[in-house]
Amino acid sequence: MIIVFVGPPGSGKGTQCELLAEHLGVTHLSTGELFRIQMESGSQLGTIAASFIDHGNLVPDHVTIDIVSESLGEAQFNVGCLLDGFPRSVPQAQALDALLAENSCKVDLVLALDVDQKTLVDRMLARKRKDDTLETIQQRFEAYEKLTRPLLEYYQNREILVTVDGNGDIDTVFEGIRQAMETAKS
Ligand code: ADP
Question: CA 23 to CA 19: how far, in whole Å?
């Protein structure tokens, strides 16, 4: 089963993906983490990614699509996986559809986390990541509204989108995700 997590910055996708991946026994692929690993290693890809991430911008689609294509393999196609933070734009979603189709797979479910704006900002400022200044946070919200929100309609039209309330504590949100998955199955 291929599950895509969508949510604004700070919505807790990473935390919930980890819990759900363990619960389902599948792997969890986070493009944010992939980029952070590259940035820490000082690779050329990391330098390119940092020039976008540090200003609150999305890394260009072709760079992101390449790194995901390299990271997905037999295990993910056969057993399934959770995609955290990818796709983040309609062109990325189209590229993912093509990649999955080549491997006789498709996106089965899209979980969209819905969180109030104030909670998002508080959570991001609390985690004190380098790209979490007020200025970059604002820019990331703008990028989310412009590039990522249209994805919700893209998946809604395919009737695979389920929205989950992400405002509560970690356990409450996870329970909402489990219920949403049960509903989606039936
Ligand atoms: P958050 O969910 O708080 O935005 P992530 O760890 O998912 O944090 O991502 C960190 C940054 O990595 C994003 O702000 C963005 O610049 C970049 N990034 C992650 N995934 C993608 C993607 N699919 N396309 C483009 N940029 C991405």
Answer: 6
pLDDT grade for 106, boundaries at 50, 70 and 90: very high
78-96 residue pLDDT tens: 889 999 999 999 999 999 9
> 53 CB less than 6 Å from ligand 1?
yes
Active site residue 129: yes
The closest of 90, 96, 82, 108 to 160, measured between CA atoms, is 108
Does pTM top 0.90 for this prediction? yes
Token pair of 6 as six digits: 């969508």
Structural domains present in the chain: 2-175 (3.40.50.300)
Q: Which of 129, 130, 146, 158 is catalytic?
A: 129
